[in-house]
């Protein structure tokens, strides 16, 4: 059983890198599309990088360490309700409510990056798979792509607000934990440190290379590819 005060590894390195790299890509893509002009090309590049990261996280949620696997932290409505009522012991890592936030953001970002492959701006930029569909369908997807931006902004805003609440009100070091990977164990948390050795990191690298390769193949060999 974990003892309060004991330092444990909560997040493995691949998961931590995913988190910060995705945040960088989302911010970069948002800034570039708002600046416009030739910066739209960089918007697409950030989008391809984000799609690679999301694909990595989906695979890592199956083959990664226990704390990174969806089956170990995504819970049903009953568990979320029990957590909101304070009926569950506090644990390091994703809370049942935080897990829903992770799933919601992954869904929103997945739609945004995949739909971006089929979008056009009626001027000079279009996704690499636009030629696979009709102009009307591309216009429709482009409209959904723009509308989903507000959903992402809302989800990111809620995420930042939740982090601020945990850090400023509950005094939890969740940002530090996502940087260093370590946190202090709580009395009710019986889980051990997550594996984060060379084997885990090599596995993460392999998954990352596979994810990048898949996205690169789509972009490179699509009708509108490089």
TrEMBL record:
<dbReference type="InterPro" id="IPR051542">
    <property type="entry name" value="Hydrogenase_cytochrome"/>
</dbReference>
<feature type="domain" description="Cytochrome b561 bacterial/Ni-hydrogenase">
    <location>
        <begin position="10"/>
        <end position="181"/>
    </location>
</feature>
<keyword id="KW-0472">Membrane</keyword>
<feature type="transmembrane region" description="Helical">
    <location>
        <begin position="150"/>
        <end position="169"/>
    </location>
</feature>
<keyword id="KW-1003">Cell membrane</keyword>
<dbReference type="InterPro" id="IPR016174">
    <property type="entry name" value="Di-haem_cyt_TM"/>
</dbReference>
<dbReference type="GO" id="GO:0009055">
    <property type="term" value="F:electron transfer activity"/>
</dbReference>
<dbReference type="InterPro" id="IPR011577">
    <property type="entry name" value="Cyt_b561_bac/Ni-Hgenase"/>
</dbReference>
<feature type="transmembrane region" description="Helical">
    <location>
        <begin position="200"/>
        <end position="219"/>
    </location>
</feature>
<dbReference type="GO" id="GO:0005886">
    <property type="term" value="C:plasma membrane"/>
</dbReference>
<feature type="transmembrane region" description="Helical">
    <location>
        <begin position="45"/>
        <end position="63"/>
    </location>
</feature>
<keyword id="KW-1133">Transmembrane helix</keyword>
<feature type="transmembrane region" description="Helical">
    <location>
        <begin position="20"/>
        <end position="39"/>
    </location>
</feature>
<dbReference type="GO" id="GO:0022904">
    <property type="term" value="P:respiratory electron transport chain"/>
</dbReference>
<dbReference type="GO" id="GO:0020037">
    <property type="term" value="F:heme binding"/>
</dbReference>
<protein>
    <submittedName>
        <fullName>Cytochrome B</fullName>
    </submittedName>
</protein>
<feature type="transmembrane region" description="Helical">
    <location>
        <begin position="97"/>
        <end position="118"/>
    </location>
</feature>
<dbReference type="Pfam" id="PF01292">
    <property type="entry name" value="Ni_hydr_CYTB"/>
</dbReference>
<keyword id="KW-0812">Transmembrane</keyword>
